[in-house]
Amino acid sequence: MTETTVRPTPPDPTPPDGTPPDGRPSDGRRPADRPRLPIAGLVTGGLLAAVVATWATLPGRAVGIPMPSLAVDYGLPITRLILDLAATAALGLSLLPKLLGFGDPARTEPVATRARHWAVLASLVWCAAALVSTVLSAAELTPGQTPDIATYVARIPAGRGLIVSASCALLSAAVGMLAVRFGEKVPAELRVLIAGFGLLPLPVTGHASNWYWHDLSMVSMELHVIGAASWTGGLVALAVLLARRRELLAATLPRFSRLATYALVIVGLSGIFNGVVELLLTPGESFPGSLLTSRYGWLIVAKTVLTGVIALLGANIRWRLMPAIGRGSVTAFAGWAAFELTIMGLAYGVAVAITRAPVA
Amino acid sequence: MFRIRRAAVRALVVPLAACAALLLLVAPVRAHNVLTGSDPKDGATLAAMPGRVTFTFDQPVRPDFARIAVTGPDGARYEQGEVGVQGTTVFIGVRSPAPPGAYSIGYRIVSNDGHPVTGTVNVTVTGDGSTAAPPSPTPPANEALPSAPVSTGGSGTWVWVLLVATAALLVLCTLVLVRHDRRQRSAA
C-alpha cells in the first residue's frame, strides 16, 4: 500500500471493524486516480444510514426487563451492513470476469487477477461478519446472559440462515483461493453461483415474509437481494478496478449497463411490492397513511427516493458518459460512480434498518 | 450482443434456480409479531390492579423467551408465577396486595421471525387492591403453559471453540492471501 508506486494502488477492503478507509485525496491528485474513493463512499454512506435509521427505529424499552446493551443495539446493524456489503463485493467481483469477457486475456488478465484476490478477501470478511452477527443476534435474545448460540441457531430460522450464509462465504473463499492459484480455469459461473447462493438465506433473517402471500413475497425478496447485489457489486468492481483502464471500461460498461437496467427494474418492483405487502398486512394504521405515520413506512419512502436518485445517476452514466467512454475521451466516470455508490451505500444502510425495524 | 445478454441472464438466473430449492427448506410461518391489545390498556386508570395482565398479538406467540415484568409505584416487582403463552396471548399473574399508584408493565417476546418485540404499558391504580376483589385473583396455573427452558443446557463451550477455530482459519487465510499477493506483485 505504498503511495509512491506508479501502479494503481489496490483499494482497501471493507475493514472488519467497520471504519471507512481514508478515501480523501490528500496529495492533490484527482479523485479519479484514487480507486479507494468508491469504497469509502459506499461504506460511509452505509454506516451513516444504518446508524441514523437504527437510532430512529429503536424499539420501545420494556420497564423491568433487561434490554440489550447499546453495543448490541448498534453493533448488530453495523455488522449486518458489513455482511451485506462484503457479500455484494464478493458477488460483483466474481461477476467481473463475465463482464470483461474472455476474448483478450492479455489485457483483461491483470484486472481479473486483482478481482480474484479481492473476491477472496471479501468472502472472508463476509464469513466473519456472518458469524459475529450470529453471536450478536443470540445476545440480543438473552440480554444480561452469555449468548446461547446453539439455542439461537437451533430454534430461530434466522440463526440457521446466518450459518448457511457463513458456510457459503467460506466455500466461496475456498473456491476463490483455487481461482487465485489456477486463474480462470476455475469457472467464473461456479464462483458466481456460490456467492449468489450465500445471499439467498439472508432475507430469511429479516421479516419480509408474512402470513399471506408468503411464497410470493419470499421469491420477490430473493429477487430483490440478488438484483441489488449484482448491480451494486458490479458497479463496485467496475469503479475500483476499471476506472483507470479506459479501453477495458469502454468494452465492459455496455455489458454492465444492460445488467444494471434489468437489476433496476427487478429491485424497484420487488422492493415496492414487499414494502407495501408488509404495510398492508400489519394491523393498525391503514395503508396509504401508514407510509407516513409509521417509522417502517418512512424507511420504505426513504428507500424509494434513494432508488430514484440511483436510477437518475445510472441514467447519467448510461446516456451521457458511456458514449464518451466509447469514443475514448476522458470522462469523470470514477467520480460519478463513486457518487452513485455512496447513494447505494445509503440504500444499503436503510435496508439493514428495514429488516429490523418494528413494523407497526 | 447475444453473448452479453447471455452473460447477464446467466448471472441472474442461475442463483434464482437454486432459490426455488431453498424455498422448500424454509419454515412456512415466520413473521413479525405486532401488539394489538393489552389488558389493562395503556394509560388506563383502574380501581384495582387485576389479578393478571395479558398482552395480545396479531399472530401466535413463540413460547420461549417471553417475559413480562410488573413494576409498582414503590419500584418493587408485582408479577407472580411463570409467564404463560396461549395462542396469540401472553399473560402473567399479579401479586394480590397491590398499592395504589403508577404501574409500568414491560413485555418482551421473541417474534416468529426471531426479532425481539418489546414495549411498556403504563397504568394507574386508584383504589387499594386489598378491598376490591379482582375478577380472577388466582393466576390460572392449569392453562398456563410453562415457558420452555431457555438457557438451561450450558452447551455453549463447544460452540465458542468452533467460533474461535473458524476465526483463526479466516485470519490464516487472509495472511496467506496477502503474502501470496505481495510476493506476486514484487515478482512482477
Description:
The complex is a heterodimer of chains A (360) and B (188). Chain A has 360 residues and is mainly alpha-helical. Chain A has a single domain, classed as Formate dehydrogenase/DMSO reductase fold (Up-down Bundle). Helices cover 73% and strands 0% of the residues of chain A. The longest helix of chain A is centred in the middle third of the chain and has 37 residues, at 105-141. The model of chain A is unreliable at 1-33 (pLDDT under 50). Among the domains of chain B are: 35-125, Immunoglobulin-like; 154-188. Helices cover 30% and strands 28% of the residues of chain B. In chain B, the strands form two sheets. Chain B has a four-stranded antiparallel sheet, with no helix packed on it. A four-stranded mixed sheet of chain B has the order 2-8-7-4, with no helix packed on it. The radius of gyration of chain B is 27 Å and the shape is elongated. The interface between A and B is large, with 78 and 66 residues.
CATH architectural label of chain A: Up-down Bundle
**CATH level-3 fold name of chain A:** Formate dehydrogenase/DMSO reductase fold
Return the average pLDDT of chain B rounded to an integer.
74
- In N-to-C order, the SSE pattern of chain B is HEEEEEEEEH
Instruction: List the total number of helices of chain A.
Output: 11
Fraction in helix of chain B: 25-40%
Determine the N-to-C terminus distance of chain A: 48 Å
Flag low-confidence runs of chain B. Answer: 20-30, 131-153
Roughly what percent helix of chain A?
over 70%
Name the CATH architecture of one domain in chain B: Sandwich
Oligomer: heterodimer
Number of helices of chain B: 2
Biggest interface reads: A-B, 78 and 66 residues
CATH topology of one domain in chain B: Immunoglobulin-like
Strand percent estimate of chain A: under 5%
Question: Biggest sheet of chain A, open or closed, and with what strands and sense?
Answer: none
